[in-house]
Design a protein that fits this description.
Blueprint lengths: L1 H8 L4 E3 L1 H7 L14 H13 L7 E5 L8 H11 L3 E4 L8 H9 L4 H13 L3 E6 L2 H9 L4 E4 L17 H18 L4 E5 L6 H11 L3 E3 L2 H4 L4 H12 L2 H4 L2 H8 L13 H14 L5 E5 L5 H11 L8 E4 L9 H5 L13 H4 L4 E5 L6 H13 L1 E2 L8 E2 L3 E7 L12 H6 L4 E4 L9 H13 L11 H9 L5 H12 L9 H11 L10 H11 L4 H8 L3 H10 L5
Parallel strand pairs: 1-2, 2-3, 3-4, 4-5, 5-6, 6-7, 8-13, 8-14, 9-10, 10-13
Antiparallel strand pairs: 11-12
Length: 559
């Protein structure tokens, strides 16, 4: 219930921690460090059956390393198979008193083992959040490569010793700021989050953020202790509406969302989240993969992501652009060529990439003979060089991309045999008009690229401009959007309006797509894109409303 409410309110991720479960059972956070349950099996139980099926948000597994018999590598592999997106070191030795912590440290079960957990998790493509308390712990975690740290001071009354454990917000701000400064002195891009504490209201968090520069808040009892789903929704919405965090939320999501964000893949929309899930699933087996879609839609980034998710990610993938040209330059480069009178034997890319992956872009431009040869290789794992008779074996994994125009299908660009081998192993990369929910983050991402500053201020785009962007046809997809954003960052106006944007949209592409649709299909697509709103459709197509009405009647579109 809490996970669903948090997702509806706009939370960025969910942590599956034993402390939260104990609180839901009527206990308190200190129970998380007591030998009451097998922590990892406990979290796996409710995380798999209750949290993962209930939310589409990335879910972090709170893993405990106190067990000396825990095989970290094997357990991380299980976490990935279960479907968790990240790992955090909770409960941690930072939550234990100094004496008992020293005993664990002396047995090799201390903070260094938690660092090892997160380092190995990151190598598997999992996101990581490191619980830290001191400046030294923050430095060690960031130096080890942690993406984000959660600064947590153990402020619950039942955990810390002493009779008066209250702490003022000013003291909390001072201690948090000191830890955050150390973390960002090691890596300026390190994400610093505040975990728990005496914060109960959004305005209190706003004050802390202003003083410390932390980029987010991980709520524990301040969120999940409230029994009703609506109460969780209201509290989380309050935290999400803080003005200070609003401009940084896109950057935070890009750095934390699956592993795709590290490859420039924005996935806020449900259709792109499905693409990432498919990429991760297909990457887990050695079969070849095909990524297809329109020109400029980001197919190559997804292909790179498949390799990054695979067990061959530690080897560099070979890259080959399948352009039309002489057979010796295309088929010969891919499959090799035997020596001729004026030419030495040409080594094939399949041989060079035998222990890695071969990324074939624009496989649709490969000749019919080349596609048939590729189908033979996918079927047998062997190939014959150009002008040769000997059979060569390779273990290279093929990750291919194909460009398909809007409204067309794969059958129009690939031979039947090659298409059959990619059946069920393909990823359709959606065109930009089909993933408009990603527009705000894509714009911010390209603005950061253009300015070369990860802390660049978000472009101030007014609603009228966003409506113009959403109504545009985007024949060039992400490539066209990047060109427009590159021009927008040079605009001196404080607020970008539709009047500023429309000349750029008109200069990058014609209003009407050429060659992709018939006239009738073009109007139908425009109406669908604007949910049958005729005024918006006419505006997006560059027509008057009267002209649109006449065309609808003449082409019998709504009959």
């Amino acid at each position: 219930m809490t996970a669903r409410a948090a997702e509806r309110a706009g939370a960025d991720f969910v942590l599956a921690l034993n402390a939260g479960r104990f609180r839901a059972m009527g206990g308190s956070s200190p129970a998380s460090i007591l030998p009451i349950r097998n922590t990892n099996e406990f979290v796996a139980g409710f995380g798999r059956t209750e949290i993962l099926p209930s939310t589409k948000l990335p879910v972090f597994f709170g893993a405990c390393t106190f067990d000396p018999q825990l095989d970290i590598d094997r357990f991380l592999d299980r976490i990935m198979r279960w479907g968790f997106s990240g790992v955090t070191n909770f409960p941690s030795v930072i939550h234990i008193d100094d004496y008992r912590r020293s005993l664990l440290e002396s047995c090799g079960l201390g903070y260094e083992r938690e660092i090892e957990l997160l380092v190995k998790a990151a190598k598997r493509g999992l996101m990581t959040i490191a619980y830290t308390r001191t400046q030294s712990e923050a430095r060690r975690m960031v130096e080890a490569g942690a993406e984000a740290i959660c600064i947590n001071f153990n402020l619950n009354r039942a955990v810390e010793s002493g009779c008066d454990l209250s702490i003022s917000l000013s003291e909390l701000a001072a201690r948090t700021s000191a830890v955050a400064r150390v973390a960002q002195s090691v890596d300026v891009n390190a994400i610093c989050l505040l975990g728990g504490g005496p914060i109960t209201k959004p305005d209190e968090l706003l004050d802390i953020c202003r003083e410390t520069g932390v980029q987010g808040f991980i709520g524990g009892s301040s969120l999940d202790r409230i029994p009703l789903e609506m109460s969780v929704l209201e509290v989380t919405s309050g935290f999400k509406t803080i003005h200070l965090l609003r401009e940084k939320v896109d950057l935070l999501e890009r750095q934390l969302q699956l592993s795709g964000f590290r490859h420039g893949v924005i996935a806020q929309s449900s259709i792109m989240k499905h693409v990432l899930e498919t990429a991760r699933r297909l990457a887990s087996n050695p079969n070849s993969v095909l990524v297809w879609g329109e020109a400029g839609s980001g197919k190559r980034r997804i292909a790179n992501l498949v390799h990054a998710f695979s067990d061959r990610r530690h080897t560099k993938a070979a890259l080959f652009h399948c352009r039309r040209g002489p057979a010796i330059d295309t088929v010969g480069a891919l499959f090799g060529a035997e020596s001729a009178e004026n030419r030495r034997r040409q080594l094939s890319l399949l041989e060079a990439a035998s222990d890695s992956a071969l990324l074939l872009t624009h496989v649709d431009q490969l000749s019919r003979d080349g596609q048939e040869r590729l189908a033979d290789y996918l079927e047998t794992g062997t190939f014959t060089p150009l002008n040769g008779v000997s059979v060569v074996r390779s273990n290279a994994r093929i990750i291919a991309t194909a460009t398909v125009t809007r409204g067309a299908s794969l059958e129009s660009v690939l031979c039947p045999r090659l298409l059959a081998f990619f059946a069920g192993l393909d990823i359709e990369q959606p065109a930009l008009p089909n993933r408009l929910e990603d527009l705000p983050q894509l714009i911010q991402h390209f603005a950061v690229e253009a300015k070369g500053d990860s802390n660049a201020q978000t472009l101030a785009i007014e609603k009228s401009a966003f409506l113009a962007l959403a109504g545009h046809h985007w024949p060039g997809n992400l490539r066209e959007l990047r060109q427009i954003v590159n021009q927008l960052v040079m605009v001196k106006d404080a607020h970008i309006t539709a009047d500023v944007l429309k000349p750029l949209l008109n200069s990058t592409s014609p209003a009407r797509p050429k060659g992709a649709f018939s006239e009738r299909e073009w109007f139908i697509e425009g109406l669908k894109r604007n949910r049958l709103h005729r005024g918006k459709t006419a505006q997006s197509l560059g027509l008057s409303r009267k002209t649109l009405y006449n065309k609808i009647k003449k082409l019998r579109i709504l009959e």
